[in-house]
Task: structure prediction
Amino acid sequence: MPFHRSAVRVRAALAVSLGAVLAVTACSGTGGNARVDAPEASGDGVLRVGLILDNTGDTAFLNAPQLAAAKLAIKDINAAGGHKGRPVELLPVRQDQETAEQANSLAAAKADVVIGPTDSSHAAAAVDVLSNARIPLISPANTAAGLSGMASGGYYFRTAAADVAQGPVLAKLAKDAGAATISVLHQEGSYGKDLSAAVTEAAQQSGLTVLPGAGFKPGNAAEGARSAGKAKPDAVVLIAREGAQGALAELNNAGISGSRIILSDGAFARYGSGLASRVLDGARAVVPGQLPTAAFQEKLLGVDPSLEDVSYAAETYDAVTLAALAAAKAQDDAGRSIAANLIPVSGGAVSGGTAATGTGAPAAPCRTYKECLGGLASGPHVNYDGESGPVAFDSHGDITTAVFSVFTYGPDNNPSPTGRETAGQSG
Result:
């Protein structure tokens, strides 16, 4: 059965006030940097994985694919021998609790690693608890750019790319289509401001001329659209969330439509009759991640036959698998050991060097826990590239290679997948 990957349509609900996040976490962590420490083994021999599911209301549908993916990853890990011959355990999930309460419950249950949360604005609450307990947190869905600088003592990672990673891809789509000039129309707020700056920088570096752009508030995009129309750019990059449909209508009124429009992930949607006929005919949009393979979808369905969406499933699966590989490399299930080995098993880099080899070149990619485990048996280095694509954590715990699916709109103003782009250096 076909699944939906619809996480983008709820990104507005997952927005974050980064000032609040960074203020809360200023005192988080235990000092030092767990990502590069060399801790002594201190685990009890059982690798325990916790999962924070923080979605409620309209976003509650995001819980099911993450839970199914975590269960599937642990099933595959245990089929390959588990951790040091013992089964990896998934701790009970407590969706009825707030994020901090879930984190405290998982710490009390002796979690060695925790996967989650979904909402970027909830990252601080989880990190504040878990970093002090020396438990790494790997989010499959946090995308707020400012989280890269969050103080966590080195215990925070994410398998989802930061929003700004799509900047070079949006600029590339414009240039590949023959544009020599672009304007950027962005919705006000941290998402729009940060991504607009990333697009502008990438466009200028690629030789495009960036004409004056504009910001707008939802429902009030007319002036910005008219400004873009007067500038007469070859293409307009629209960076928006809940204000996207109104902005598209105003761009059409200003004479900009069809293939001249490129949409950020937050603006991606099936617009259909919500816009005038053919307004988006030929327009392109990006969505984070690669479309899940049929084989992966089938395996997820085997875990949860009622599953209807795969948002963040691949990123969750990879987060669990990477944690198990980090424990395998360390031959220890303690949180400190996992945090210290996540960068190496991802093929990532620290301080300009490659953690996996120390020579500047990562090991050849391995695609599954079983395959990577075999690599660890024959040598000290592996480079896991999973269901979500390459990971390659950097010194901030961010992925350095971001994969994006490209969609092209038809005359009915609805999108179809037409390609894939990668931003960052391959890892």
